[in-house]
Write a structure and sequence with these properties.
UDP-n-acetylglucosamine1-carboxyvinyl-transferase, Chain, single chain, binds shikimate-3-phosphate, 25 strands, 2 domains, 4-stranded mixed β-sheet, alpha/beta
């Protein structure tokens, strides 16, 4: 089993570029496949998750020309997607599975979505329920709670879906089905989740309307292929942001990072903990980008409130690490969604930080971390979750002795090259 060994270092310095945004990459492939004409994607994340989405579309007859740093997708709007002959294996990706479930619900053919052992344990009813209400036939384990999901799509009617969770995957699944439904489809969620689908639909010439936390699309729209530049993934940059804050004598510049405000909730949280991070905007696209300049900063504990959770949802593992090295107490609440990510991230972070000697307690919907206790290296477990693996590798940079993170192949789902970039910045 792959593992990563980390030792304390004397600072992280220089300029780094992290890979393309995972959420935006998935959406560029999906919308490109159903648009009319070619879509050129520059900076696509070549992680296992997004490559599985590309493979699934190839299985449905979509021509994809892979030119290394640019990928061209021949949209199938005119002739449509074809029934796949085999299972569509989305690997570890909740985004891949849930967004494709939405798209396939509107296709007049049979398909089966499956995934790895972790994905097959993640809740799917949040998408199967609204998609069935729109008219799709979907079978899954335990009555549609878990994948594999077998889908017979077509003839959908628009609905107004009130989602009990703030989830861009649920919102996007229902909106993608809505594009192929009769009439209008809307999704309302408690707090706004990331809005990449909405922004990208506009880039493809689609009409979509957002009022408060309700997003509405008309069915039967035609989308036109376009050029998409994928910014660097804020969620990947977050590991290096926190690493530079907690490792003394660090000074790091992260280039061309996506700073969509529905994603950057970690920044104000870190800033009120005392972090020195400068955000220099770059260019003007549908998705905002910036260079982030981070220098080592003494941190203090904070309270994260439920309204702050959606825009920082993927950053909690690394925020827990920041909290463990901050003076005083950090409380995370309203984050029970963390229990149904690639693994139960509340439990995983509690166990791993405790292994390093941190003072951490678990709540149903979050964690309390009393920071400032010196930590010592230990063996940590990724639980098969890329973000847990990377968060613990960063923690290891500030622990006495060696930290070994076990089972790190999962890092390749979102951040191929993590180890190399880390080594290049270590002084
Ligand atoms: C994602 C949405 C979030 C996030 C995931 C990517 C997306 O999941 O955690 O990593 O691309 O839509 P939820 O929608 O389940 O919150």
């Amino acid at each position: 089993m792959e593992q990563l060994s980390v030792k304390p270092c004397k600072g992280l310095r220089g300029e780094i570029a992290v890979p393309g945004d995972k959420s935006i990459s998935h959406r560029a492939v999906i919308l490109g496949a159903i648009a009319e004409g070619p879509t050129e994607i520059r900076g696509l994340l070549r992680g296992a998750d997004t490559l599985n989405t590309v493979k699934a579309f190839r299985q449905m007859g979509v021509a994809v020309e892979d030119g290394g740093d640019r990928l061209v997708i021949e949209g199938t709007a005119r002739r449509g997607l074809q029934e796949p002959r085999d299972l569509l294996d989305m690997g570890n990706s909740g985004t891949g599975m849930r967004l494709l479930a939405g798209l396939l619900a509107g296709q007049d053919f049979f398909s089966v979505l499956t995934g790895d052992v972790y994905l097959r344990q993640r809740p799917m009813r949040r998408v199967t329920r609204p998609l069935r209400a729109m008219g799709a036939t979907i079978l899954g384990r335990e009555g549609g709670r878990f994948a594999p999901l077998a889908i017979r799509g077509g003839k959908l009617a628009g609905i107004d879906h009130i989602s009990p969770v703030s989830s861009a995957q649920v919102k996007s699944a229902v909106l993608l089905a809505g594009l192929h439904a009769q009439g209008r489809t809307s999704v309302t969620e408690p707090y706004p989740s990331r809005d990449h689908t909405e922004r990208m639909l506009r880039q493809f010439g689609g009409r979509i309307e957002t009022v408060g936390t309700t997003v509405t699309v008309d069915g039967g729209q035609r989308l036109s292929g376009c050029a998409i530049d994928v910014p660097a993934d804020f969620s990947s940059a977050a590991f290096f942001t926190v690493a530079a804050l907690i490792v003394k004598k660090s000074d790091l510049l992260l280039r061309g990072v996506g700073v969509n405000p529905t994603r950057t909730g970690l920044l104000p949280i870190l800033q009120r903990m005392g972090a020195r991070i400068e955000v220099a905007p770059r260019g003007e696209g549908e998705e905002p980008m910036a260079d982030l300049h981070v220098v080592s900063s003494p941190l203090r504990g904070t309270t994260v409130t439920p309204d702050e959770v959606p825009a920082a949802i993927d950053e909690f593992p690394i925020l827990c690490v920041a909290a463990a090295f901050a003076e005083g107490e950090t409380t995370l609440t309203g984050a029970s969604e963390l229990r149904v990510k690639e693994t139960d991230r509340i439990r995983a972070m509690r166990e791993n930080l405790q292994a390093l000697g941190a003072d951490v307690s678990e709540r149903d919907d979050g964690l309390v971390i009393r920071g400032g206790v010196p930590l010592r290296g230990a063996r940590c477990n990724s639980f098969g979750d890329h973000r847990i693996a990377m968060a613990m590798a960063v923690a290891g940079l500030c622990c006495a002795g060696e930290t070994v993170v076990e089972d790190t192949a999962c890092i390749g789902t979102s951040f191929p090259g993590f180890r190399k970039i880390l080594e290049s910045a270590i002084r």
